[in-house]
Amino acid sequence: MPNDMHSERLAILGGKPVRQRPWPRWPRADENTEKNLLDVLHSGRWAISGMYSGRKPYERQFAEAYAAFNDVSYAVPVCNGSASLVVALQALNIRPGDEVLVPGIVWVACASAVTRIGGVPILVDVEPDTLCMSLEAARKAVTPRTRVIMIVHLYSGFADIDGFVKLSQETGIPLLEDCSQAHGARWKGRRVGTFGDIGVFSLQDSKLLTCGEGGVAITSDPRLYGLMEQLRDDGRRYTVSPPPLGHPELEEIGTVQGYNYCMSEFHAAVLTDRLRHLDGENRVRHENALYLEELLAEVGDVRPLRRRPEVTQPTYYHYGLLLNRQAFGNYKSDVIRRALMAELNLFMEPVDDPLNQNILYNPLRSPRTREALKEALNPARFDLPVAARVHKDCLTFSHSVLLDDREGMEDIARAFSKVKKNHHLLSQLA
Ligand SMILES: *Cc1c(COP(=O)(O)O)cnc(C)c1O
Questions:
Q1: pLDDT tens across 286-304, in order?
Q2: What is the DSSP letter of 328?
């Protein structure tokens, strides 16, 4: 790009953007995805509660494929990621007032799933360079009422799995791994989501594996599996052997109070196809991320979230970048982000606000919140100094960008470089 006056005018101020070409679209589908969907459409069975048609439902096919993919015994598909959390927490026997450790920065569903079933989320501060729950802070937050430790691998960061497994073993408190942002990642060769008692995944539109709206919980514990199976379908479970044609494939067990959180056949049909692409897509993203990191190191003052050496297959739900904002004129990251978005014709997202100051997390506004728990649930009672500081220095963009070619990575680095060099012009916006 010629270094003339015009090209250096920031796009947000009317200059020529670094890139106009569109970025790769997400979600993806091909003829095989379409074939599976049409197959369901004409199959005479759209839900697991539909009548047996002589074939294994897609929901079961996906459950088996996803369990095999993760090398665990069982998977329970559900209607969304939040439901996977609810079903998992119920299987782990959260009772009213029980405490669950939840990271201070995370999607609101991680905390609201706990309050939905009467539990108390204990907001735990995060590590400054991975944004994931701090092991040290978690250790301090454990009380005799702690019933579950929920860790989340956030954006492109990973929690200290070995440390949390050890904490769980020492305290006897079950570990729940929310891998909604890390499908297919490996820790020392083993898939994430398999280290705790249960692993859960959202399969919502933006995620690395998606059917629009969906979720899945995995475990190797037959007892937890049996509970989750019933919890997600009003107390029913699949019959051991197939029923006669045209009969229900579910039997009524009812040893727990279940609800309907089932995944439809259409969703499972999409997932059964898309799962085959997950590892390959994750490899492409990783190669591009490594290249981008080389380029950004040259730009300086912008670095990726720390990659732990134990992570042998990284994932990038959103690619998280930490800015040295001083080198960018010390503007709020929102200003820098808007300048970058204009250069790249790309939506970039700030990091979620810490849950003690998050507009979406309102346990005290729920009419069902018990008076006795109001003090415990007040988000403002938690002190999250690291979260409060680092979330302001970080911005993220979707994993789909990392499915672009190498030129795309060069565009991103060029945009950072241009905004950094010309940050003085941003005073007009601030
Ligand atoms: C997306 C997400 C959820 C919620 O999943 P939904 O499918 O939107 O209900 C929960 N936890 C994390 C970490 C997520 O990223």
A1: 999 999 999 999 999 999 9
A2: G
Q: How far apart are CA 106 and CA 94, in angstroms?
A: 20
Q: Contact, 142 vs 95, CB < 8 A?
A: no
Question: In whole angstroms, what is the distance from residue 174 CA to residue 108 CA?
Answer: 21
Polymer length in residues for the chain: 430
pLDDT score at 8: 83
Residue 178: DSSP 8-state: E
For β-strands 99-103 and 146-152, DSSP reports them as parallel
Return the ligand 1 atom nearest residue 80 CA: 7
Is the pLDDT at 6 greater than 80? The verdict is no
Alpha carbon of 202 to ligand 1 centroid (Å): 5
How far, in Å, CA of 181 to CA of 157, rounded?
Answer: 9
Q: In whole angstroms, what is the distance from residue 380 CA to residue 199 CA? A: 29
In terms of C-beta distances under 8 Å and separation of at least 24 residues, what long-range contacts does 365-373 make, across chains too? 366/115, 369/115, 370/96, 370/118, 372/97, 373/96, 373/97, 373/118, 373/120
Neighbours of 237 (CB within 10 A): 22
- For a mutational test of ligand 1's pocket, the pick from 89, 107, 132, 183, i.e. the residue with the most ligand atoms closer than 8 A to its C-beta, is 107
pLDDT > 70: what percent of the chain?
98
What would the pLDDT profile of 127-175 be if each residue is shown by its tens digit? 999 999 999 999 999 999 999 999 999 999 999 999 999 999 999 999 9
315 pocket-lining for ligand 1 (C-beta < 6 Å): no
Tokens of 329: 């004129």
Q: How far apart are CA 49 and CA 170, in angstroms?
A: 42
Average pLDDT over residues 243-268: 97
pLDDT (average), residues 172-200: 98
